[in-house]
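Worked example 2:
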Amino acid sequence: MTLEQVTDMTETERPLSGKKLARLIGRAVGDFSMIRDGDKITVGLSGGKDSAFLLHSLCGLRDRSPISFTVRALTVDPTDGARDASPLEELTRSYGIAHRIVRYPIFEILEKSAASSPCSLCANLRRGILATTAAGEGCTTLALGHHRDDVVETAFLNLMYEGRFRCFSPNMFMTRSKVRVIRPLVYVPESAIKEQAEKLAFPMVNFCCGYESSSMRAYVKVMLRRISRKTPYLHNNVLHALKNPDTDCGWRDSRRPNKVSTEEVEP
């Protein structure tokens, strides 16, 4: 069974309306104190459904929020201009927000590198460009479109290949660029985003690379979809475990103190 076939399978969850999704996003924003009065938020608009839905949701939240914050968009073109990004400019114009495109030869760098994990290198390059550019434009916050499935997949990847049950933070401060990174979609299932993206007909630009379908994340995605057939609450249970870590289970090595890291585990 291919990744595409599994991704298109019917979810065991009930369909979520736009209002329910807005409540999930609002709950995540509140639970993790993501947005503050006066924030200048840059949305990392990648060209896919997740970031387009994030942009749509934050613009809606801005319009009805009791606190004041601004929203703009930033796109990193990893093809260095080889692909047409104009559909994203049309999308941002429809919301009346500023949008900047940074062209950088990330794919060319990946092809020439001997990196054992090209996906990690790509993610780090993109995140660094996004954060540095956002900071240079006076923004306080970078919003990324990672959803609930990304959370669970990253937790399993870390468990399987690093021996640690952890995930990227929904709200973290990047010490180099001095911007906060927030992920308002961490409670939202990928299937619901896909449904809304089709309903709202977001214009998209395919910036995917050749490593995506054969990556370990793709393998874990298929694995989790199969497990979810018998365990429909798997994703929510993993979220619960991440939010409520059991640090008193008797397994911590008392000879090794806990290490606090300021770095983020990138999906």
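The longest strand covers residues 70-77. The two ends are 24 Å apart (CA to CA).
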